[in-house]
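Hi V.,

You were right to ask for the full record rather than a summary. Here it is.
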Amino acid sequence: MRHKYFGAISLSYATMFFEGALNVVLVVFMMTLSHQFGKDSGEIAILVSLKSFGTMVTLYLAGHLSDKVGRKYVMLMGWLFFVFFLLGFVFVENYALLLIFSVLGGVGHGLMDSPGMTLIFDAIEGNTGPAMSLIQVFFAGGSVVATLLGSLFIAKNYPYQNFFVIFLGISLLLLVLLLKVEYPPVKSAEPEFKIDKKEKIKFNPTKAMLILLVCMILSATFQSMMTTWTPTFAVDVKNLTQAQGVSMLSSYQIGSVVGAFVLAYLLRRYSVTLFMFLNPFLASIFMILMLFVKNPLLTVGSLFGIGFFQGVYFSLCINMGGLLYPEKAGAATGAIGSINMLGFAVMISLSGKFVDTVGVYELMVGVVFVGLLLSLCAFIFRQTYHKLVGGIK
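Predicted structure:
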């Protein structure tokens, strides 16, 4: 039986796919843009950082505003900012101006992201877990498509501007959905996460929330390093071509998609907090493997494993924020999302300077320690959280 708000649910997934693609586009063409504008990697990384900053400052506001005026109008504003971003990278040939257009792209992401995800809560009654797990699949799927398409452009030496033209066309299809679908009514209360009676919070969750935010910062550091510098690492350390380096990133992203499916099944039986500390530890093991192997196939497998375990971490933190504050899940989601984007914006900028002065191999060694520290922090969160709910599963 077709869901009453099938169109709105489809719009949510289409939005995630579009955002996922445009979230990695600057990374995909980082080396191309570096050559085009005569800038080093650190300066091009600033474009990525500013885009993340634009998202960070609008995420919470977009969610709050969409509660007041509706999801449609806020998402339309986000679509318009995304179009400005795409047009900028098609026509502008000045690096300083592209800094501005990068911020506009980030604002577009922030305006579409919060209301786009919240459509799932509006449209579906009861347990939204299965539908929400697909959000990560579509977001990572968009990243995979953009990465593979970008590597083709680089291999064939096509103008990078044509890539942005293609996504202008896709944005028009998204606009049709935005205008035509039937939107569910906005829920008057914040979306509540389905909570087992055994997991009802008995005490003040502030301490647990603070530890969770630290986990989110560490996860954002890990993610930003991997998604930004994997192509450069593949070229400079593994001696691959630029096109091969970019396609290597897709191994990480495909791992994220597969990991999201597997995790959706496992979470029916095991606590989220188990995977919060286990996943980054296993991802760190695969990181070590990636650093030392010389076989390209093993490198691809290592990146797949890293993505499999770590690519879904954001959704784990979002879920726990909702469990800590079931009556203010929207605010918790906004806070976690903002911290995540803050981590991205700051760490991409800092890592760009580090790569230019020290090296990308040393940066990836640092990522191993970030993963291990995240695992330790998540273990402390697990202990703290289960003291609140009374026992560890």
